[in-house]
Design a protein that fits this description.
It is a single chain. The protein is built from twelve helices and no strands. The longest helix has 39 residues. The chain is mainly α. The protein has one domain. It is elongated, with a radius of gyration of 25 Å.
Length: 280
């Protein structure tokens, strides 16, 4: 029979996870928070995605004028080096247009960084979830792709925080982050070896007057991907695999270690096309 008293005495249905509470708790209780995300509604992945897109846009647009300024300084240094090789009588006869520097292309200062950043979010997050999904299944995990995508997106919050810190630094200091991660160690070593200042003076754009600029090394690109935010992110990624697949922490650590190794190795794609050539 219909019993109104029994209905009133029944406990209320459990409340779903609150996004703001999850954003606050993930920094202090990450394992518990990621378990709540894994068992929560499917739309929770949208929250870190929107944060990542917003911070990527902020970082790109804050860095764009600084990058343009560096490119102007590099072009100015190259022009001065070229003019020094021209006899004085020819320099005086050059038209004014020959000494005017072109404006840096917005495609290089905004377009390419924006495409790279957003592509890393929309495509990179899918690829990451796919690799983690395969790795967890290989070690006995039983999870869906959607759950693993969701929790791995939340594990990316330290990287999103890094974008926020870097964007704030560039906005306040009016300079780009020159040596991210542990690559600053190599920059310090290069600076100590730069007692070869008798050969030229290093400009603010990183161009040595009278000498060619040093290309980026393979080690500096790899070390540039390692910092406290990355280590924090990898730790959360391990907890995300545990929350989604119910794997033991040891097996989850193996999955994350394999993913980290692949991430470092794929960094050499950018090295071959950009780093060693000294390009953008």
């Amino acid at each position: 029979m219909f019993d109104p008293a029994a209905i009133q005495a029944a406990p209320p249905p459990p409340r779903g996870p609150r996004p703001l509470a999850l954003l606050a708790q993930v920094w202090f209780r990450p394992a518990r928070t990621l378990r709540a995300v894994a068992g929560g509604p499917g739309w929770l992945w949208i929250i870190p995605l929107l944060l990542a897109v917003a911070l990527t846009l902020a970082r790109v647009f804050v860095a764009a004028p600084l990058l343009a300024q560096e490119q102007r300084a590099q072009m100015q240094a190259m022009q001065e080096a070229n003019m020094a090789n021209i006899p004085a009588e020819y320099r005086e006869s050059l038209p004014p247009e020959a000494t005017q520097l072109p404006e840096p292309s917005a495609a290089l200062t905004v377009g390419l960084p924006l495409i790279g950043g957003l592509g890393g979010i929309f495509l990179g997050w899918l690829l990451r979830a796919g690799l983690l999904h395969v790795g967890c299944l290989a070690l006995g995990g039983r999870q869906s792709f959607g759950v693993l995508y969701r929790v791995s997106a939340w594990a990316s919050l330290p990287l999103i925080l890094r974008d926020a810190v870097q964007a704030t630094y560039m906005a306040l200091a009016h300079e780009r982050v020159k040596a991210p991660g542990l690559s600053g160690l190599l920059a310090t070593t290069s600076a100590s070896q730069g007692v070869a200042g008798s050969m030229g003076v290093v400009s603010s754009a990183g161009v040595v007057s009278g000498t060619a600029s040093q290309p980026v090394s393979a080690l500096s690109i790899v070390l540039g991907r390692v910092d406290l935010y990355t280590l924090w992110y990898l730790a959360l990624l391990g907890l995300a695999c545990v929350a989604a697949s119910k794997l033991p922490r040891g097996k989850a650590a193996l999955v994350v270690a394999g993913y980290a190794l692949l991430s470092v190795l794929t960094g050499f794609g950018g090295l071959l096309t950009r780093g060693l050539t000294g390009g953008f």
